[in-house]
Amino acid sequence: MKQFLGFVKKEFYHIFRDIQTMLVLFGIPIAQLLIFGYVVTNEIKDIKIAIYDQSKDDVTLQISNKIISSGYFILEKDLDHISNIEDIFKEGDVKEVIVFEPDFAKNLQREGVANVQLIADASDANTANLIVNYTNGILMDYIQKENQLVNQPLQIDTEVRMVFNEGLKSVYMFVPGTMALILMLVSAMMTSISIAREKEMGTMEVLLVSPLKPVQIIVGKVIPYVTLAFVNAITIILIGYFVFGMPLKGSIWLLLFESFLFISMALSLGIFISTMAKSQQVAMFISIFALMLPTLLLSGFIFPIENMPVLLQWLSHLMPPKYFIIIIKNIMLKGTGFMYIWKETLILTGMMLFFIALSVKKFKIRLE
């Protein structure tokens, strides 16, 4: 029995000395619990809206203040007209436009009914539904409290209009997110595992002492995966268009270029992971934990980034799929050109060059 207890004690010491094992046992569960606890929510907050008040009376001012002070919405723009409503949504900040009819207060007092139009960006159908429901709830709360003070029952009729996805089809949200997830995992994971396998087998050392430069080794490893992943991207676009009815309002060439850029960035990230991983298992573990979960939770694929705590919002800025999903939705759903997505394109390019530079530096250190 003493020998058995000594053996168990030795196993505990062995686990406590292994940082990777401790990370799997305690670090990952804690991180997942915190991320899921803060991200997975059906609430909204700090949603940027615009208001077009054609009446500009005391009642519309009270309602506007009630909406903005609720904590759910932030007034981004006070509009003078809505002739360019789609352009406002294409900029990507405003998620809803609230339109008050002319003579709102007079209509409410004389006829007992006034009209409000709610126009929402439905490129993310779930978020658009939540935004409209929250706004309707605030309007109904206001009118119920007013009805307690007057004899004549008052009513606010709301007309809801969804832009870019009138049918609120969820596939319009899942195709871009799934495309980003698949390309990220396939490109980065396969590249990192491939190079890690060569390191395990010893063939990477042969390459490192060959006349090839580190840049040539990296580019040579990347080209086949870029080609195969690009074919994968084209397949996803075709399936989304012909099978699921995903629209393609923008330039197909711009979409293919952005897909190629994202694939190149993912492959450069995979190479960087491979320079840190000592084995295929470690490379796969890093790829899944560092890529799959953030892509699902922190990229805006499923859960709106605006709903997250400030810390997670900052972390989301480091997630490449976030920018690719924005690009896909802008091109396919909104039909925007390069001028609306140049910032996201520049960020992905910078990330790609950053990971390539780190990988080349790592290879040079190995050569020295």
Largest sheet: 5 strands, mixed
- What is the spatial order of strands in the main beta sheet? 2-1-3-4-5
Tally of structural domains: 2
User: What does the overall shape look like?
Assistant: elongated
What is the straight-line distance between the termini?
Answer: 52 Å
**How do the SSEs run, as a string of H and E?**
HHEHEHEHEHEHHHHHHHH
Estimated radius of gyration: 26 Å
Class based on secondary structure composition and strand pairing: alpha/beta
Helix content: 55-70%
Question: What percentage of amino acids are in beta strands?
Answer: 5-15%
- Total beta strand runs: 5
Q: Please report the number of helical segments.
A: 14
pLDDT < 50 runs, ≥5 residues? none
Mean of the pLDDT scores?
A: 81
Question: How would you describe the overall organization of this protein?
Answer:
- The protein has two domains: 47-163, abc type-2 transporter like fold (3-Layer(aba) Sandwich); 171-367, no CATH class.
- 34% of the residues are buried.
- The model has no long low-confidence stretch (mean pLDDT 81).
- Helix content is 66%, strand content 10%.
- The protein is an alpha/beta fold.
- The chain is elongated.
- The protein contains 14 helices and five strands.
- The longest helix is centred in the middle third of the chain and has 31 residues, at 171-201.
